[in-house]
Specification:
Homodimer. By secondary structure, the protein is an alpha+beta fold. Helix content is about 35%, strand content about 35%. It has one domain: 2-Layer Sandwich (Alpha-Beta Plaits).
Length: about 100
């Protein structure tokens, strides 16, 4: 990772109807984007384990790293990403996307 790495965080709360199997399937599909979309340097995900009680309902985090804004911008319009978003949306109760330059 370099000083110019751009991190793309996606915080999610799934609908009550979303099964654990569906969440796992969504996570696998999200991770697969690293193989099908150029410019994704790293992918990771996890569930909230903070004891602080400040998650505001968000339960899952997905993080993708890009070399810079151009790579992130290419990801955002890539057909594989757009198809994933359409698959993902019906299961989301709440989502927050936050990008930042890692230092």
């Amino acid at each position: 990772m370099t000083d110019s790495t751009l991190r793309h965080l996606v915080l999610c709360r799934f609908t009550e109807q979303t099964s654990a199997a569906e969440v796992a399937s969504i996570g696998a599909d999200f991770a697969a984007l690293q193989q099908s979309v150029p410019g994704v340097l790293h992918f990771e995900s996890g569930t909230n384990v903070s004891p602080e009680g400040l998650a505001q309902g968000y339960t899952h985090c997905f993080r993708l790293d890009f070399a810079g804004a151009a790579e992130r911008d290419g990801y955002l319009v890539h057909p594989a990403h757009l198809a994933f978003v359409e698959r993902f949306k019906p299961w989301l109760a709440q989502v927050l996307v936050f990008d930042y330059a890692a230092s």
